[in-house]
Amino acid sequence: MTEEDLALAPDRxxxxxxxxxxxxxxxxxDLCNLLVAQGMPLQRASCFIRTLHPQASGRTVVWRxxxxxxxxxxxxxxxxxxxxxxxxxxxxxxxxxxxxxRRLDDPxxxxxxxxxxxxxxxxxxDYVAMPLKFSDGEINFVTWTTDAPDGxxxxxxxxxxxxxxxxxxxxxxxxxxxxxxxxxxxxxxxxTGRRVLQGAIRRGTSxxxxxxxxxxxxxxxxxxxxxxxxxxxxxxxxxxxxxxxxPIEERGGEILKFIGDGLLAIFPLGSTSAAGDADPALxxxxxxxxxxRGRNALRKKHGKPEIAHALGLHVGDVSYGNIGSPTRLDxxxxxxxxxxxxxxxxxxxxxxxxxxTSARIADMVTLxxxxxxxxxxxxxxxxxxxxxxxxxxxxxx
Length: 397
Hints:
By secondary structure, the protein is an alpha+beta fold. Helix content is about 40%, strand content about 30%. It is built from 13 helices and 14 strands. It has helices spanning about 5, 10-15, 25-35, 85, 90-95, 115-120, 155-190, 190-195, 220-225, 230-250, 280-300, 335-350, 360-365; strands spanning about 40-50, 55-65, 70-75, 100-105, 125-135, 140-145, 205-220, 255-260, 260-270, 310-325, 330-335, 355-360, 370-375, 385-390. β13 (about 370-375) and β14 (about 385-390) form a beta hairpin. It starts with a helix and ends in an 8-residue tail after the last strand.
């Protein structure tokens, strides 16, 4: 923040000088520092924004004068049903209250929200909660706390109230952008979502990349679908995809799509093939198998069917880009290497091995693998030699 910024009124700063700020956390930090520099006796400020996210119902940023940077917390789904939410000021604000103020240093004022007891213990003397109204009518939430002996003055409250329209506008812009980025990552993957957001959206545009390809799906899923109720099938798939996603993402891979009971992931490589290049892909596959055993022990304990899968690994050049119709596109990888990874996964089902790799993978890993011999592959003229990692035994068929 420059000396020029410090001389501006907070609402003018929000309108004219906060355009380069890219997060609500940074915005709240700079705004609160500006207010303090201009004499506002802030002790604490918080902002709660409801969001569209598969794991969270909202996001909270908390600024404190004792900390250099604000905290940012994700508020998980289900918070609305908790006692802490129901006894907080949030429902009152969400239901249309203009503002809530409590003079914490006045014994006659009830501390009717548990948060007020905590704030008073921290030396706060005055607390104000105000609604932040977005352009679509959604109501969010900002709070201001001071430890000044006489609380907020009428003039200070007027300044804070006057900030609400432009503060809501700036935060709405930031949150809409963040929401777009997060949903693209959730539904497309981190790298693919970034590419799409940067403009890689034209049908037919692609690039050739070299990657280790992982193709996996659940064994016996068709029979399970016939035998189990719909909610149990969804739970089974969620268990399986959660297990697969963790090691793939931790090892630098990216899940491009879930295909029914299967998934397709890639581990981008350089242009050359060196020993160890495919280790992350094979390690992810082995770690997934270990996690699957642990999850199956829990499922068995609770009387749920265990999950078995087959996984194929191959390395090759693939076309990475947009395919589809003019109105419905898929950002994915295609090519013979993807087809072979899929065929290896199918071969793994036939052989009973949960992990089957191509000879190229075997040449590019430092982990020990063993040959399973040569086998015919549908669509290929010649049989291919396939491998499996040591320590991963065939499943009982």
